[in-house]
Amino acid sequence: MRIEEHAKRCEQELGKPFIEVHCFLDQFAMKYNMSMAHRMILHHRLGVEVVGLEFGPDAKEAARLHIQDDLWGVLPTSPEWFLTQENYLPTSGQEDSLEEDIRFFLGYAPDFNICWRGDWHAPSFKCSCGYNGPTPNGAKQCPWCDMPKTEQFSMLLQKILAT
Fold first, then answer.
1. Is the dihedral of CA 160, 46, 104, 139 positive or negative?
2. Cα(147)–Cα(152) distance, integer angstroms
3. ∠129-132-137 over CA atoms, to 5°?
4. Of residues 52, 140, 147, the one with CA closest to residue 103
5. pLDDT tens for residues 3-55?
6. Across residues 117-137, what is the average pLDDT?
7. 3-state secondary structure (DSSP) of residue 126
8. Spatial distance between the Cα atoms of 78 and 120, rounded to a whole number of angstroms
9. Given a cut of 80, is residue 143 above it in pLDDT?
10. How far apart are CA 76 and CA 91, in angstroms?
11. Which of 45, 58, 130, 154 could serve as 161's disulfide partner, Cβ 3.0–4.6 Å?
C-alpha cells in the first residue's frame, strides 16, 4: 500500500492519519529499490515496539494496521519470519546493509545464512524466554536466545512478550 492509503485507513480506524508512522515504517523502501526485503527491518512486532518508542503508545496501533495491511493480515514476531518467505528474501548484495539497518533499530540482526523451514504459523517449540515458533534444524534454543544480548534488544523483547 502507498502511504496515502495507510493514512486513510488509519484515519477511518483510529481517527488520525499517523503519516509520520507510515513514513517511518517505509523509510527503507527506496534504499532497497522497492524490494519486499525492506519490510524485514520494521514490519513485525519488534518494529511496532520501536514505533511506540519513537512516536508514543498511540502510534503502535497505526503501526500494527500498516504492517497487517502490507502483509495480508500477518503480524510477524520478528525479522526471522521473512526468512521463511521466498518473496521477502534479500537479493544478493543487500544482506550486509539490511543487517546493519536491522541491528540499528533492534540491537540484533538475524542470520541471513539460515533459511528457515517449517510452518511458521504452527509453532512447535516454546523457548523459556517465551518465544513460540520453529527453529532452524531443530535447534534447542530460539534464535533470540542464541543472539548476543544488547540492552536495546532485551528491552524490545520484554515488551512484546508482555503483550
1. positive
2. 13
3. 100
4. 147
5. 999 999 999 999 999 999 999 999 999 998 888 889 999 999 999 999 999 99
6. 53
7. strand
8. 11
9. no
10. 21
11. 130
pLDDT, position 149: 66
Give the per-residue pLDDT at 140: 62
Listed in sequence order, the residues at least 6 apart from 87 whose beta carbon sits closer than 8 Å to its beta carbon are: 36
Asked if residues 77 and 160 have their Cβ atoms less than 8 Å apart, the reply is yes
- Per the CB < 8 A criterion, the answer to whether 40 and 88 are in contact is yes
Q: Tens digit of pLDDT for each residue in 57-98? A: 999 999 999 999 999 999 988 888 887 777 887 877 888 899
For residues 77 and 133, the answer to whether their CB atoms sit within 8 Å is: yes
Q: Tell me the C-alpha to C-alpha distance, in Å, between residue 122 and each of 19, 55, 118, 126.
A: 34, 32, 9, 11
- Contacts of residue 48, Cβ cutoff 8 Å, sequence gap at least 6: 60, 63, 64, 67, 75, 160
Cell numbers 546493519: residue: 100
Burial class of 46 by CB neighbour count within 10 A (0 to 12, 13 to 18, 19+)? buried
Read off the pLDDT of each residue in 152-162 and give the average, rounded to a whole number.
79
The Cα 138–Cα 124 span in angstroms is 10
The Cα-based distances of 116 to 17, 23, 88 in angstroms read 36, 30, 13
